[in-house]
Request: fold
Amino acid sequence: MKYSLSILFFILLSLANQFSGSENDSKDAAIQVFDLKVEGLTNPLGLSADQPKFSWKLKGNKRDVQQVAYRIIVSSSESNLAEDIGDFWDSKEVKSGQSTGIKYNGKALSNNEKVYWKVKVSTNQGESQWFEGGYWSKGISAYNDWKSTRWIGMDKAFEWDDLTTFSKLSARYFRKEFEAKKEIKRATVHLMGLGLFELYINGHKIGDQVLAPVPTDYHQNVKINVFDVTEEVKSGSNAIGVILGNGRFFTMRQNYKPYKIKNFGFPKMAMQLHVEFTDGSKEIIRTDESWKMTADGPIRTNNEYDGEIYDARKEMPDWNKVGFDPSTWLNAEYVQEPEGEFQAQVNENMKVMMELKPIKILHGENGKFILDMGQNMTGWLQIKVEGKEGQEVNLKFAESLQEDGSLFLTNLRDAKAQDTYILNGKGKEIWEPKFTYHGFWFVEVSGFPGQPKLADFTGKMVYDGIETVGQFETSDPTINAIYNNAWWSIAGNYKGMPVDCPQRNERQPWLGDRPTSSYGENFVFDNTRIYVKWLEDIRLSQKKDGSIPDVAPAFWRYYSDNMSWAGTIVNVTDMLYRQTGDAQVIEENYDAIKLWLDYMQSKYMDESYILTKDSYGDWCVPPPSIEEATGQNADVKRPSQLISTAYYYYYMQLMTDFASVIGREEDIAGFQELGEKVKKAFQETYYNEAGYFGENQMTDNLLALHFGLVEDDQKQKVFESLVHSIEVTHNGHLSTGVVGVQWLMRTLTDNGRADLAFKLATNRTYPSWGYMLENGATTIWELWHGNVAKPSMNSQNHVMLLGDLIVWYYENLAGIQSDRNNPGFKNVIMKPSFVQGLDYVKASHDGPYGKISSHWQRKGQKINWEITIPANSSANVYLPISEAKTLEIDNRKGMNQNDESISKVEGKIMLTLKSGTYKLGFREEL
Reply:
């Protein structure tokens, strides 16, 4: 096995000493530098890239702040840094406006070597002071550096375990004591703990992560987590403790459909603790045969589907501290290392990101009661309890209740979704699980001693430790509530990879759920790293012939060769380039995408250039009426060659763009030629002279219009067919499944019917997002008819039906859109639809250059619009007026040519603005 290192693209990590960005009145500090980041890992330790990248944001107290030069210094010590000694790298002054993705070009770091950096920038408004970015260190950079570190574990079950289909495997506990005989300067742990780990040094849990590491296909790659434990390791005696849970490594359903579900074996770990002493000497503590282990601890079983059983009577006080007697423990055994390559983890671990208290206790029969959390959430429940030794408290989780008030469990399929805590009887006991999570709104509690109080329970909301970077609000309560529901669904389904749902026996990273949803999500969350990691998962799951699975990592072996599912690799690559401006995402995925497209062409394209293979069609189309939808199954496949052919043409256009961006010009003519042949075949096969495509389904016409498959003289007719389908055939409602909904709102808006898109966005009757609200949803459903559907496929927490709704919120209602010609919000396209029915829209997105905000309000016929453009960027601002004479800027009529320029685009005013905050006012032209 060869150790793999990727040059990681745009993986931002927050470092020490970030500047808050507050104003400073001194002359030298008029330009502020903040949010300094090094790209390569989610913490500053264990960087895997030999050429990491730097980014920062600027803030000035004037308009039109544009960077013109920068200087970066990288030093081996804080003292050298303070004296401007760049003994690792001094870029000298570089004349450039680039402030994101700047590659390190200095001396190579050795393993575990730590360096410090700072930056000074010059702008057209003045020069900044030096601003420190903190530090980073190089990770363990070669497989041979791990060779003397052995993987340890125990490749067997114990007598209390159960390896049937509904497996029960207890957690494994490992410990080792060691002596640090000198004064310690620095200590760093590098850990691969599979499936999940918790690390302790001298009794202290290290880090605030949970359910770590992120899941991967362990046959392909294994993630390394790195921690600074300098504060925890002491001179003298020390103890290391590690608990291993099962995670995705020890599969949740053992020996069940092995042709479909991968299994990786029993939990195992490899670890190095690097200790550097003040005299310059070093020592490495490794996993080897001297470690002790036991599985006879309090965590009796754990997995994602079924939950965790914890027997507090089996607790081992101080097991992870010096002096504990492990004489009853076993010697850890050497075990086979995983097949996958060792890699630094590039995306965030999960964390407890929020705590919720239940809002009421619903009492039932036989001592049972149900907690109402007031919100469909993802995570677990912490309990506080006092009772007798051996008493069992059982927690069952569900998303909703049946009419009789009991839990609705059928939609969980065979997931037990239950935690059990067995008391030790030693006073007040506080417990929460370590190696499971649930999707739930309600919790049935049985066996709870005494009178329960709301204060005895706390819900822990768990998702990847990423920031919410978007805010969105309008005058319409339906839109606001849908946005809130979307936030909860998106957050709850970030689990080290984007999963479909958090509650039933699935929780899989389906590609078909995210091609456009990922785009909308990026406005709300700083999700760049999770999607870079997911693209790697997809590439690693690709077969040598080019086939890409429906699920990646391919925990389920589904390779259906479906264009609109596997093509998510193209859509997410495009999204990340558009939103971040870093072309490396294209470079990393280009060959894999090209191989897949070649495979699909050679295997499934007929002689007329129709792509004949599709698997799912427009998955989850709403039944015609709620009456017909009642009890109906939704997992009906309706393969569509129209869909697969339309997507193939669309991907030819994107590949042409990709080739141009990364200098693969030799491929462009081939993409264009094949694209034209596919377009011609699509036209000849699917266009009806009556003015529609295919069967005149909403999705058929949407794809043709949005992908550019409609000739100019056909567009009006086809669009009229689409509008008629919405307004007349479906009585003002959508009829799209997961494919069509990705292009619905933008296609309507781009063709002049933002008003119709607004109607769809605010409907509260079936089928609509508002219908979910009307029926009590606090997340997004899997099905338009989720309140009445057959329960076998009826998740109440999904994202796939969001389609392009969140994109539409930000780009078309708020007017915050990245310019394809200047991606990453280097230039912002601000072209909102000031739709009738909205009195205001207020939104912001914190992008690569800083926060972009847009707030417009309607007062009578006048619109007041305040916008903020971050430093070192610009904006094209489109106004729905034909004359500038009535335009007000900063409460003044007329134009200030020093600050902005004016032009006309298709008869309407466009302002080209530099950074700063502007107040615009104008009258709508009726």
In short: Residues 1-29 have pLDDT under 50 and may be disordered.
